[in-house]
Write a structure and sequence with these properties.
Blueprint lengths: L2 H20 L25 E5 L6 H14 L6 E4 L7 H9 L4 E6 L1 H11 L6 E5 L5 H5 L7 H10 L1 E13 L3 H4 L3 E4 L2 E5 H8 L2 H7 L2 H9 L6 E7 L5 E5 L1 E5 L21 E8 L3 H15 L11 E8 L1 E14 L2 E22 L1
Parallel strand pairs: 1-2, 1-3, 3-4
Antiparallel strand pairs: 5-6, 5-14, 7-10, 7-13, 8-9, 8-13, 10-11, 11-12, 13-14
Helix pairs in contact: 1-10, 1-11, 3-4
Length: about 350
């Protein structure tokens, strides 16, 4: 989940409270694959492996619904592989592939999806989604039902296979010698600055209890956080320097609540989308930023100069970003920590995904 989104919500709520106190004032879904829907002769009876994050709320109810739905469809007994803190999904996905699963389904949030996807890339076996997390960004961008395990399973069994891109990035730290070469994969969004600080500050127990409200509380605390000077180079272009609250590199652009953060982002276009976000002027800057996001979600963009809240977009196959000092990085909601630079590039069509 992008931290900037919850900050925008926080800004709106704060603005309403302020106005009441004063009294007198008051994207399109990813395009279908060129190959079109898969065709099958006769009914398909897949062997499904579920890779499940057991820490998610209502885990027992989700399990019961999925097993009941499999039985109703006459499917073979599925593999049920639970993640651990030490292994958040990669080892389980490898075990599922070794066992001959026809489709490997990530049952969890964005972190579980990312861990499973990292193994599924290049396997030739489709990956399915049963979203049970807070953000569920990949699921939302391919219209897999959120909060409906049986509906998500229908997409797994009756859907089609679509090749989608993944993002990869290499990070640099001040203490690089202690870390060694460090690379990460993402399927949704990586965020630097405000985005990363928000993820670092969000309490996991509170998130499990109240969902996105936990992001709201953390975002409100960071509304007046640090602005970072960044130097951005896209492909072989000239570097550009800017002061930002957050810099985000995305593979898809639709967020919860119908918010479109990256209006040009498509999962299968062979490109990454970069957005640099900045606000000044306190609450007024965040309010203007919210207006920018709402307008771009409706297909409109403004080009007013000297805006105190703005979001600027670009696309590239490769993006290099350097920070003066350091800033906190998150990838698909997982905290990476403070970095001084990163290089991100796209893996075109690397993941086979089962979609409705």
């Amino acid at each position: 989940m992008s931290g900037t989104t919850w900050a925008l919500v926080a800004a709106v709520v704060a603005a309403v409270v302020l106005l009441v106190a004063l009294v007198v004032r008051r994207r399109p879904v990813a395009a279908p694959s060129a190959a079109g829907p898969q065709t099958r002769s006769g009914p398909w009876v897949p062997r499904i492996a579920f890779v499940v994050n057991p820490s998610k709320p209502d885990g027992d109810a989700v399990r019961s619904q999925l097993l009941a739905a499999c039985a109703e469809r006459g499917l073979p007994d599925p593999l049920w592989l639970t993640t651990t803190v030490a292994d958040p999904g990669g080892g389980q996905a490898r075990a599922a592939l070794k066992a001959g699963a026809d489709v490997v389904v990530a049952v969890g949030g964005d972190g579980t999806v990312r861990a499973v996807a990292e193994v599924m890339v290049g396997s030739g076996v489709p990956m399915g989604l049963v979203p049970t997390g807070t953000g569920n960004l990949l699921a939302r961008n391919v219209d897999v039902p959120v909060g409906d395990p049986a509906g998500a399973l229908r997409a797994v069994v009756d859907g089609r296979d679509k090749t989608v891109d993944v993002g990869r990035l290499r990070v640099e730290r001040r203490d690089a010698a202690d870390w060694g070469p460090e690379e990460h994969m993402f399927v949704a969004i990586a965020g630097l600055g405000f985005d990363g600080a928000l993820v670092a500050d969000t309490d996991d127990d509170l998130k499990a209890r109240v969902g996105w409200v936990a992001y709201f509380l953390a975002g409100f605390r960071h509304l007046h956080g640090t602005r970072h000077q960044v130097r951005v180079t896209r492909d072989d272009g000239e570097p550009q320097t800017a002061w930002v609250r957050s810099a985000m590199i995305g593979n898809c652009g639709r967020l919860p609540g119908g918010i479109v953060l990256l209006p040009d982002a498509l999962l299968d276009d062979g490109l990454l989308d970069v957005a640099v976000v900045d606000t000044r002027g306190g609450l007024a800057g965040w309010a203007q930023l919210l207006g920018e996001v709402v307008l771009q979600g409706a297909g409109m963009r403004t080009a007013l100069p000297a805006k105190i809240g703005r979001i600027d977009h670009a696309q590239a196959r490769r993006i290099h970003l350097e920070v003066t000092g350091s800033a906190t990085l998150q990838v698909d909601g997982d905290l990476v920590g403070d970095v001084t630079a990163l290089t991100a590039w796209v893996g075109p069509g690397a993941l086979l995904l089962r979609v409705p």
